[in-house]
Amino acid sequence: MLQVGLLASIAAQHGASLQHVKPHGALYNMAARDLGLATAVAHAVADIDDSLVLVGLAGSSLITAARTAGLRAAEEGFADRAYCSDGSLVPRGGAAAVLSDPDTVATRAVAMVRNRRVLALDGTIVPISVDTICIHGDTPGAVTLAQHVRAALERAGVRVTALR
Question: Which residues contact 141 (CB under 8 A, 6 or more apart)?
Fold first, then answer.
């Protein structure tokens, strides 16, 4: 969390402030499953600034830990990633783990928000409640995906706003 504190300090020097924290990569995935690690992350964020929103995989240990620590939590869905039937993400090395078709990604995002569900790789319908949608910047065509997702959400009557 040294990085978060440093970033907050730099932002403050320029008259800005952080709004949220989202652990990255392996830490994000481990904290989604490990309540002890998730609790450590949540307490570290709260120690830096308890007004920050902690972003985590929808329904995960990180969301539980954030709320227990008194933080606001944002449950995140991944429109460009395949899900396992337990609500976890298919590891990137797995077959069909990354989705890059704009219509598929947009349809998944709308289903997550409006229908509170996502279709897992094995065909299972997984209940999901999301506050924010992630599209990975390294997914092929990420900008196009984001544009399609936003347009589909707006057509579905979803108001797209910044996390607050």
Answer: 100, 102
Is the model's pLDDT at 1 over the cut of 90?
no
| 97: number of Cβ within 10 Å | 16
On whether the CB atoms of residues 32 and 50 are closer than 8 A, the answer is: no
CB-based contact 82:122 (threshold 8 Å): no
Find tokens 């481990």 and name the residue: 30
CB 42 within 8 A of CB 68: yes
The per-residue DSSP string of 19-59 comes to -EE---HHHHHHHHH-HHHHHHHHHHHHHH-TTSEEEEETT
Q: Domains of the chain: which residue ranges?
A: 1-75, 79-164
- What pLDDT digit, counting tens, does each position of 117-126 carry? 999 999 999 9
Greater pLDDT, 164 or 9? 9
Give the global pTM.
0.92
User: How far is residue 24's CA from residue 152's CA, in Å, rounded to a whole number?
Assistant: 27
Per-residue pLDDT band at 53 (split at 50, 70, 90)? very high
